[in-house]
Write a structure and sequence with these properties.
Distance between the termini: 39 Å
CATH class of the largest domain: Mainly Alpha
Radius of gyration: 28 Å
Order of helices and strands: HHHHHEEEHEEEHHEEEEHHHHHHHHH
Helix content: 40-55%
CATH topology of the largest domain: Transferase(Phosphotransferase), domain 1
Strand content: 5-15%
Length: 432
């Protein structure tokens, strides 16, 4: 899950009055604030010492300024940053009450949850605890989805899937305890290295494909495979995380309730998910994994766009630029695998992870892929033909010749030959 990585985002802000008004919560926050701003790289130790000196000087007077006030007044932090810090502090403080776990530090935050590193006291092991924000504590839909994630993860036991340990509720906080992965996301890796080699990408692809094979065989489709949801350890072990959008293949009730709505991440979402199809099959995960690997080996997403709507439109309509056109070091077989993973027509894509794994192993061994073959997408060919029709040779209009005429047969043959020639020319344009 991208939440396990250092991927902070905006969290619900608390009111400024709660920060400014004296109270137990405020004083507790102010006590920890110095450490928080240092740990988050917002100020230097020298700047913090300056603020503390000012507080000491004002201690005997009528001033009621807190460290929070001074940091904002001296433009060391913004109001928004301060709000986020207090929100994180309040969440961490409240999660300390989760029985059996000792919170150590925050790992990351997303729109849907905050993840903490904790120590499970009974087994003396590090774990990751995913906590649903309190703003969702009364939202039955989000709570139900949160627990579904926990139940789905609990049914999956595979070395390439982040393992679930526990799920429950403590006060207003719903939490999900899982395996702690000491590493980074593959998104972090590609951001750092810009472009991964075919060898490294193949290792990631194979391990995630094994994870998906297990999940699909267990009756679940992930629906949100992306670089931020793939963890990689320093030893190179890969683990698929974040089953927050996972759905049982047999869950027709949920499928019908979600019909017409796109669930997934725009840069990596499959065409059928964009269309809100009721039947989302394992092939959707394979498409998203293909888009992920495309990003890793080319250094860019398959379909960049101005906004999410534009991106998703391109997934539906725009032809895919073959990855080996952007990275000439890729083998033809590996490029063909990615292209077949990302075929827009779900029925022409890999239907299961087993076939995908067979092709991966074949290319790794230096052979040609069995299932992925260079093909011409005729649905795209027609689009190209339309766009180039003004430049293409046009057969002359003529009156229909008399039936049985030798001349009519000649004209007919000419028309057929011209049509075939035009098709070949357009095909060559697409291939180039």
């Amino acid at each position: 899950m991208d939440d396990q990585a250092n991927n902070p985002s905006e969290t619900p802000s608390t009111s400024k009055s709660s920060i400014r008004s004296p109270g137990a919560s405020t004083f507790g926050f102010d006590t920890m604030l110095g450490k928080l701003v240092i740990d988050n790289g917002l100020i230097t130790s020298e700047e913090l010492a300056e603020c503390n000196s000012l507080l000491e000087e004002a201690a005997g007077g009528d001033s009621h300024h807190t460290l929070s006030d001074l940091l904002v007044n001296h433009n060391y932090v913004t109001e928004r940053q301060l709000d986020r810090l207090q929100s994180d502090f309040d969440t961490r403080k409240s999660t300390q009450r989760i029985s059996g776990y000792r919170i150590i530090r925050k790992l990351g935050a997303g729109a849907m949850a905050t993840v903490f590193l904790a120590q499970q006291e009974s087994l003396d092991r590090p774990v990751a605890i995913k906590v649903l924000p309190t703003k969702f504590s009364d939202n039955e839909e989000f709570i139900d989805r949160f627990y579904k994630e926990g139940r789905a993860a609990a049914k999956l036991n595979h070395p390439n899937i982040v393992q679930a340990y526990d799920v429950g509720c403590s006060g207003d906080h719903h939490y999900f305890v899982m395996e702690y992965v000491d590493g980074e996301t593959v998104f972090d890796r590609v951001e750092k290295e810009k472009q991964l080699s075919e060898k490294e990408a193949t290792k990631i692809l194979r391990q995630v494909a094994l994870a998906l094979q297990h999940a699909h065989d267990a009756g679940f489709v992930h629906r949100d495979v992306k670089p931020k949801n793939i963890m990689i350890t320093p030893k190179g072990d890969v683990k698929l995380a974040d089953l927050g959008l996972a759905r049982a293949l047999s869950d027709l009730e949920t499928a019908e309730a979600e019909a017409g709505r796109a669930y997934g991440t725009p840069y990596y979402i499959s065409p059928e998910q964009i269309r809100g199809k009721i039947e989302i099959t394992p092939a959707a995960d394979i498409y998203s994994l293909g888009a992920t690997i495309y990003h890793l080996v080319t250094g860019q997403v398959p379909f960049p766009g101005k906004n999410p709507s534009d991106v998703m439109h391109r997934h539906l309509k725009q032809p895919l630029v073959p990855p080996d056109h952007l990275n000439a070091s890729l083998s033809a077989g590996f490029s063909q695998i990615i292209e077949m993973m990302m075929v827009k027509d779900v029925h022409q894509r890999y239907q299961n992870a087993t076939d995908l794994l067979n092709d991966i192993d074949a290319v790794t061994a230096g052979d040609q892929p069995r299932f992925a073959q260079p093909t011409l997408d005729f649905s795209l060919l027609s689009e190209v033909a339309k766009s180039t029709s003004s430049d293409a040779p046009v057969a002359p209009q003529m009156e229909q010749p008399a039936k049985g005429s030798d001349l009519s047969m000649f004209y007919l043959m000419c028309l057929v030959a011209s049509a075939i020639l035009n098709l070949v020319l357009v095909a060559m344009m697409v291939a180039s």
